[in-house]
Specification:
185 residues; Protein Transport Mog1p, Chain A; alpha+beta; seven-stranded antiparallel beta sheet; 11 strands
Amino acid sequence: MSAPAAFAVESSQPDFAVFADPKNLFRLEYPVGWQEVNKAGATLLLRDPTQKYSQIGVTVSPVKIASLAEFGSVRDIGEKLTQAEAAKESTVPGGVTLVSEGERVGPASGTTFYEYEYRLVTTRGNKRVFNAVAVRNNVLYIMNAQVFEKGDDATAEEIAVVASVASALRRVMRAFDVGRESVAS
């Protein structure tokens, strides 16, 4: 599949392109070469054609709350997120490890984001997952990105590739922004 029409190939980061969605009001920087795929429920889903299970998704949904703080603190939401992941049938017992959690402000919008990085061990393999969550004007924005981690038998090259993708996904998470200011030209 080709890149969607809303993509602009200008980014502050070399090797990154920008998706600006003026309808849903979000901006996402992503690694050059990733391709859009369709998935029910996702506003945007990108996959790395060279790493089968590496993907970036954005979901946009109306909500009744006006801010993340109304839903809970960074810690509260992080606990709910890890509990939900742990409850999935494919997650092995004890298979969720929160690596980091934090709060930041969107670079253009000034919107508060909660960010999470966690490791997930499932019956289908291990993943490193990155989430950025925000609420703006009663709209919930969730950016979720993941890369499959290699097992104990991984080669040094495979480990390096996964580490490189994980580093890129951290950049994606931290640059994600929402609101009219984020998509202004």
